[in-house]
Amino acid sequence: MVDRASYLSFLAERGYREEEVLPIVDLTRLPDDGEAAALLQLLATGAKNDPLAALVSTLVSEQWNVNRLIEPINNSVQGHFATGNKVFPGVFPTRSFNGQSVRREGGYLVLLDTGCMELHEAAAGIFASLWHTKRKAVVLAEILNDYRERRLPKLETYDPPGLRGPGSYDRIIFSSRLTNAGQQFVLAHEHAHVALGHSDIGTTRAFSAAGDTIAVKAHEDEFAADLFATEALVRGVRGKADAEIMIACFGPFLTLGLGLLLEEFREAAPPESTHPAAFARLARITTYLTAHYAQYAKLGLEFLEIVGGAGAKLGYQFSTTVPDAEVGYQLIRERLAPRTRLVDRLMFWRRR
User: CA nearest 75: which of 62, 85, 66, 90?
Assistant: First the structure.
C-alpha cells in the first residue's frame, strides 16, 4: 500500500519538506467578513457528520496545507473504485496540470502540480460569483496567467461580488462544492487508471532531473479513465437532489476546461505530453454527459462559455458547440481503436 509516509519519503528523497508545499489558503490573512463569516457559520451550524464542516474545523485548528485538503477528497473518491490503498495523492512541482502517477512499492503516488488545486478553487469562485459572463472570462484569463507564471492564483485580489460580505454564505459554499467536484474528478481519473489496470501496462518516462519516472498510458486509456471517472462520480450521487448531480457533472468540465486553456499557452499539446489533447478529452466528455445527463450538464456548459471567453481574451477562440451526441457516444462506448481520429471527425476546436 502507499500512504502519507510514502509521500513524505518521496519528498525527503528529493530535498523537499512538506511545509514548502504551498497552502491552499493562508488562514491568518482571512478578512473579517466574507470567507471568515462563512467558515464560522459552517462550524457553528454544520452537522457533526458533515465532512465539509469537519474539514474546515481541521483547517482552522491545525493550519494544514493543501495535502490535508486532498486526503479526505481522495478517501471519498476511493470508495467508487476497487483500488484499495494503492493510490495516494500529494502536491509536487510537476509543471503539468494533469495528475502524474509515480510507481512506488505497493501502488502509485499521484503527484498534483503546485497550484493545481488552487486554480480549481479560483476558477470555481469565478463561476460562482455575481460577475457577468464577460467579466468572469476576463478574470479567468488573468488567473490563468498567474498560474502559468508560477504564481499562486489568488481570486480574493479581484474582490468577486457575491463571495464576500453579508449574504455570501450560500454562494461561498456553492463555490466550495464546485471546487470539490473538479478535484474529485482529477483524483477519480487516476483511480480509474488503477482500477482498469492501465497503470500496470503503460510505459514510463523520466520527468525530473532526479530520474523520477511517470506512468504513461495509451491515449485511449486516458479517454477510458475520463469516462469511467465521470460515470463513477455521477452514479455516486444518484438518488440525491438534482443540485448534487449537477455539481458532480460540473467536475470534468471544470478540470478539462482549464486544461484546454492551459494547453493553448504552450501552442497545443507538446509531443512529450502524457495525455491526449485537452479538447479531444473535453469533446468526448461533453458528448457523453449531454447524451445521458443532459438536464444536469447545464452548469458545465455554462462554464464552457466562460472558457471560450477567456480563450478569446488570450488570443484564441474555442467552439463550445456540443458534438453529435449519438454518434459521439457510440464511438466512446465501443472504446475506439487507437488509430481512430475522433478529434478530426468532431472538429471541436479551431484557432481563430
Answer: 85
Distance CA 89, CA 70 (A): 7
How far apart (Å, rounded) are the C-alpha atoms in residues 308 and 320? 7
* Alpha helix (H) residue ranges in the chain: 4-13, 35-45, 51-62, 66-78, 116-128, 133-148, 169-195, 198-201, 219-235, 242-265, 278-292, 298-313, 325-333, 342-346
Is the torsion defined by CA of 154, 12, 64, 247 positive or negative?
positive
Residue 27 is classified by DSSP as G
d(CA 331, CA 321): 18
pLDDT score at 339: 29
Contact of 260 with 282, CB cutoff 8 Å: yes
Q: Look at the alpha carbons of 162, 145, 229, 11 in this order and tell me if their dihedral is positive or negative.
A: negative
Q: Say which residues have a Cβ less than 8 Å from residue 40's Cβ, sequence separation at least 6.
A: none
Amino acid at 24: I
Helix, coil or strand: residue 55: helix
d(CA 166, CA 164): 7
- The pLDDT tens digits of the residues spanning 2-13 come to 999 999 999 999
Task: Output the pLDDT for position 77.
Answer: 87
Tell me the C-alpha to C-alpha distance, in Å, between residue 222 and each of 51, 122, 276: 30, 26, 7
pLDDT digits (tens, 9 = 90+) for 88-121: 999 888 877 888 888 888 888 998 887 888 899 9
Q: Which residues of the chain are under the pLDDT cut of 70?
A: 21-65, 199-216, 265-274, 317-352
User: What is d(CA 153, CA 133) in angstroms, rounded to the nearest whole number?
Assistant: 19
What is the pTM for the complete model shown? 0.78
Which residue carries 477519480 as its cell? 188
